[in-house]
């Protein structure tokens, strides 16, 4: 097995901010990317230095510590400007990776579908475009004048032009894939099958929950951002079918390139009839509050405030009875479940069904045998069939129909149904 790279973590934090709380997530991101965080350096100041990120004195301390720990890459818990990144690279004579670049790298490792890979490439290109100048610094250092014009500048401009062209092609391709997704969504809506989106912080067990509810077989390895591409599977409860979509996990300060680039997953959240906000019940209380706020913030940013939402506390098999009581007191309306053991899943399915029950009206229909297509239409809607009886006149059916679809069967309603 390949040895992980040795990473050095650097951060500028406000006064009073606990480095352990703030940097724990970055270090976990590093491990997911295959980097072992061997050391860290923190400077407490109101804001980073615009040129060097850390102050002059701290920069000297960084150079000494970086060399002493034999680190191979500097990981910065912020999005650096191109100039800040170049200065740090020159000072350390080493690679510098900021928070956004690190997350993009993880996404590149985990993208599986063609669309996911296109989204990663687009986000990386848009991130790298303003940083391309650094690739040709060695030519620019020669200065202007005779003998220096052409190669560096023309190559840089060529690369930029090629990158912009590639960005346009990727956006067009993703637009086409988005149109195909819209067709599939419209088909799902035509059949009136209720759709549920799983949203939540990364690594809270959404994929495990999807597998437990639907036997989806999605990868559930214990890594951040293990699931990037939206996966939709179905389950049945009391004769009614429901579709569940797993979505990408969120983190604090999710880079805007990813919020924009991963429209596929976020759109699945927006078009869902119900969002299950899954949280990790085994997380520390303050971390749980912070993670819920982070997810709520992203859902607000993408315009999902008005959608029905249920809080689901997962991983309760990992906590004791006292913690469960505290969770119940803090989140009285939330269901406590364990996707790993199956505890609470029947109650969750019932809660989902309850949320959609009011959308359906019970109707009594008599469908003539000569119009067998109507019975097929009824089944295609996924409507719960509560009774079915073959009579001389036709098939007598008692079903719960979506209100908007009742008009299609109005001429077959009998006995004031």
Order of helices and strands: EHEHEHEHHHHEHEEHHEHEHEHEHEE
Helical residue percent band: 40-55%
Which residue ranges are poorly predicted, with pLDDT under 50 across at least 5 consecutive positions?
135-152
What structural class do the secondary elements suggest?
Answer: alpha/beta
Q: Can you tell me the overall shape?
A: elongated
Overall strand count: 13
CATH superfamily of the largest domain: P-loop containing nucleotide triphosphate hydrolases
Number of domains: 4
* Main pleated sheet: 6 strands, mixed
**Biggest sheet strand line-up:** 6-7-5-8-9-10
Q: What's the gyration radius in Å?
A: 27 Å
Second-tier CATH architecture of the largest domain: 3-Layer(aba) Sandwich
CATH topology of the largest domain: Rossmann fold
Count of individual helical segments: 14
The separation of the N and C termini measures: 67 Å
Q: Strand fraction band?
A: 15-25%
Q: Overall pLDDT, averaged?
A: 82
What is the CATH C level class of the largest domain, in words? Answer: Alpha Beta
């Amino acid at each position: 097995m390949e040895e992980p790279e040795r990473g050095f973590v650097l951060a500028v934090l406000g006064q009073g901010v606990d480095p352990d709380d703030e940097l724990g997530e970055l270090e976990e991101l590093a491990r997911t990317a295959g980097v072992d965080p061997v050391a860290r350096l923190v400077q407490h100041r109101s804001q980073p230095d615009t040129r060097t990120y850390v102050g002059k004195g701290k920069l000297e301390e960084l150079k000494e510590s970086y060399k002493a720990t034999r680190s191979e890459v500097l990981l910065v818990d912020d999005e650096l400007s191109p100039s800040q990144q170049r200065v740090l690279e020159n000072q350390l004579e080493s690679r510098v990776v900021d928070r956004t670049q690190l997350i993009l790298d993880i996404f590149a490792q985990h993208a599986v579908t063609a669309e996911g890979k296109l989204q990663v490439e687009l986000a990386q290109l848009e991130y790298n475009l303003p940083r391309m100048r650094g690739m040709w610094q060695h030519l620019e250092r020669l200065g202007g004048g005779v003998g220096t014009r052409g190669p560096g500048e023309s190559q840089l401009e060529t690369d930029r032009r090629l990158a912009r062209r590639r960005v346009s092609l990727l956006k067009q391709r993703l637009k086409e894939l988005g149109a195909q997704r819209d067709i599939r969504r419209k088909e799902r809506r035509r059949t009136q099958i209720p759709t549920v989106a799983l949203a939540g912080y990364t690594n809270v067990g959404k994929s495990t929950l999807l597998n437990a509810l639907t036997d989806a077989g999605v990868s559930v390895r214990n890594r951040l951002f293990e699931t990037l591409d939206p996966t939709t599977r179905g389950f049945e409860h009391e004769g009614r079918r429901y579709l569940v979509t797993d979505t990408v996990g969120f983190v604090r300060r999710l880079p805007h390139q990813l919020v924009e680039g991963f429209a596929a997953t976020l759109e699945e959240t927006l078009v869902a009839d119900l969002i299950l906000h899954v949280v990790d019940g085994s997380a520390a209380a303050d971390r749980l509050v912070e993670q819920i706020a982070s997810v709520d913030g992203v859902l607000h940013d993408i315009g999902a405030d008005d959608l029905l939402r249920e809080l689901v506390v997962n991983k309760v098999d990992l906590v004791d009875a006292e913690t469960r009581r505290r969770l119940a007191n803090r989140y009285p309306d939330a269901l406590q479940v364990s996707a790993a053991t199956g505890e609470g899943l029947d109650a969750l399915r019932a809660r989902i069904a309850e949320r959609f029950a009011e959308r359906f009206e019970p109707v009594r229909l008599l469908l003539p045998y000569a119009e067998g297509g109507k019975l097929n239409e009824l089944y295609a809607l996924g409507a719960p069939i509560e009774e079915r009886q073959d009579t001389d006149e036709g098939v007598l059916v008692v079903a719960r129909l979506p209100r908007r679809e009742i008009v299609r069967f109005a001429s077959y309603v009998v006995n004031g149904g």
